[in-house]
Amino acid sequence: MAAVVSGRWTRTLVAVGVAAVGMTAAGCGTGTPGQATAGVSGTSLATSASATTTSGSAEPFDGEVLKRGEVAELEDTSGARLNPVSDGDLRNFGISAKVFEIGTTDEITSGRGYRPDTGNKLLVFSVKVERHEKSSAVSGRVSASVSVEGRQQNLPGFDELLSYGEQDGTLHYAVGVPAQDPHDVELQLKYSDLAQRFDLLDGRRTGDQPAVLYRSDDYPTVWVERLTPSSFEFTRPGDDEGPTRFTIPVERAELTYFAPVTGNAPEARDKAWLVLRYKAVGEGPNSGYASQCAVPLPAYTLTDDKGGTYQPVDRHSRFDSDGAVVTFEVPADLATATLRVAPTTLNCDTGGTSEPWPASGAAEIPFTLPAS
Q: What is the dihedral of CA 342, 343, 349, 350, to 10 degrees?
């Protein structure tokens, strides 16, 4: 059985007093996957941090004044005293955004400087962004915005960060909010019709949260790699040299909320896609043909330890020169399962023509996905 892949973020916490909190990389903290998790002590993070400056000063100010709902990217958070966030994880397509500090101030003193206009204050927060799909496909597909009393504005610099090749990073923001009784201030991480929401006043996730997105401590998916290979046999018609072994070495079995290529979500929030990837290896007289022979989808069956049986989803499965991608729709809490591949024929490419070649036997590949 292959080893479980797991990762931890390297934190870059710049808030005053963050070290005293002892934050971990837990993606779900003490909460339950798929449910909202409260902030520190259940209090309002944005109102419990006091400002270090006030906007009532008569000193000249040549910075920028932010109106209610306006957002500015900051070089740093100088001028604001911030509270750490106990569980600020947001997940979406190929990306994690972790809010790790929130507070308020009447002035940001770094960079060009920022103040709120009359009747408002600045809500300041920092967010660590990590991509798990390093390709540029994430950029332009995933967006982030802040909503203040229904007025939305995209986070400046967010999409640029997603376009920087392999680079992840930390971003700081200030947004104008009402000075008295602020409400309905949230961060949204959006892809297609799925928005993951975080209440910037209370410091907690809210709204609909698909279970698999928060199953892992660190990532929006869980997976295992390099499963133990298994084989069946096939024969080239008219060849009297005997059968050839068709070995399936599954490189990765991944439980994800987003289908490969299209990014489509399952119909239910408690479902997920199980995506299996492999490139066949042949052993025997016609071993070179193994990588050119596709297993018909009805020959794949997945069974789990609860007695569930699943068939591949045609529109999210494929076979090409890079190998096979076989996708099943399964429960988001899938743990232990066995892939069985038992074709009676293979569709083999013999120079532009697909021919059915006889096959016999069955490959069986058990695996266990990590619980978190």
A: 110
